Amino acid sequence: MWWIAIPLSIVLLLIAAYLAFAVFISKSAFFVKKRSYETVLYQDEKYNIPRSVSVLPFEKVVIKGSQGYDMTASYMPSRSGESHDYFIIMHGYNSNRVTANKYANILLDIGYNTLCPDMRRCGETGGKGITFGTYESVDVNLWIDYIYKRDPEARISLYGISLGAATAIMVASKRDDIRLLVSYCSYASLKEITIDRMAAKKVPRALAKALYPAVNAYLKIVLGAPKRETDICKAIKKVNCPILIMHSTGDRFTDIRHAYKLKDARPDAEFVEFDGAPHGRSYGVYPEKYSKAVKDFVNNNR
Q1: Three-state SS string across 9-57, please?
Q2: Which end of the chain is more exposed for a tag (fewer CB within 10 A), N or C?
Q3: Strand order across the beta sheet in which 70-76 lies
Q4: 34 exposed, middle or buried (CB, 10 Å; 0-12, 13-18, 19+)?
Q5: 35 and 95 Cβ atoms separated by less than 8 Å
Q6: 290-299 pLDDT, tens per residue?
């Protein structure tokens, strides 16, 4: 019966290789090394964002996250006097809160207080690993609770970049008290962006699709991620507030087709497209157009 053992051994080797590759992909995606504030500031400077825009006076706020870790944020009050209007600004994958300051600058001048958190496993915030919006959305709900404790009359809006945008959509899809939602360069689903990123690393798309179930299982088993909506196109259909979707044709990290899918899912959302700017860099390339798009959307929907 030795001839039966040979194909069985091959099958077991293939299964082992499949699982090992899935674990490798998962570890590289979920357990990234934190980037320093200085590194993020330097990257912003490379894309025409001066430190006078990125380094702002702030009040440091620390609360407990969904799994007991400390979460840190910068709170900046409106420059137009006392206000009950707030934007929570969520940065993208493996970044930190200082990159959100350039967007806070736009909003501080038009009467909004801003809270810019270090997302899970970024900056000064703890967390075992990045979860692409699953635990991040739980944490954002805790920041919303914090704002209401600080100001019971608060009117809260959400602003997200990339992973932060997907997180903002997930949060807004389950709440009725979000006033406005700004989504910049979000992905359409966790599955699609995971496959895209594997493909970008030269993994054949057919293999990437086959690997995704194991990667998703790793997220849930190893990180204990709760079952939440990771199809952002489905989530955005449930959002009850005005939405601004922005993206760039030059985005090589999250292709603009993701934005088109989100727009198709929510035809009533406002849509602004930037030509050629890299991922998350439209403000640096088109500062006036970007600022105007945000201000017009906010002012028209007060």
Answers
A1: HHHHHHHHHHHHHHHHHHHHHHCCCCCCHHHHHHHHHHCCCCHHHHCCC
A2: N
A3: 59-64, 70-76, 113-117, 85-90, 155-161, 178-184, 243-248, 270-274
A4: middle
A5: yes
A6: 999 999 999 9
235 phi, psi to nearest 5 deg: -65, -40
175 phi, psi to nearest 5 deg: -130, 150
Which tokens in the block code for residue 184? 């910049």
60 Cβ neighbours under 8 A, 6+ residues apart: 72, 73, 74, 75
Buried b (16+ CB within 10 A) or exposed e, 162-176: bbbbbbbbbbbbebe
- What is the residue whose two structure tokens read 């640096």? 284
Cα angle 109-114-120, degrees, rounded to a multiple of 5? 145
Look at residue 2 in the predicted model and tell me its pLDDT: 47
Q: Cα Rg for the chain, rounded, in angstroms?
A: 20
Global pTM exceeds 0.90: yes
Alpha helices (H) along 201-301: 205-222, 232-236, 257-265, 282-285, 287-300
**Could you tell me which residues come within 8 angstroms of residue 64 by beta carbon, excluding any fewer than 6 positions away?**
70, 71, 142
Beta-bridge partner residues of 243: 181
Please identify which residue in the block is written with the tokens 């270090």: 118
> With bands split at pLDDT 50, 70 and 90, how would you rate the model's confidence at 92?
very high
Q: Tell me: the pLDDT tens digits for 240-264?
A: 999 999 999 999 999 999 999 999 9
Say which DSSP state 278 is in: -
CB atoms within 10 A of CB 132: 25
Integer Cα distance of 183 and 186 in angstroms = 6
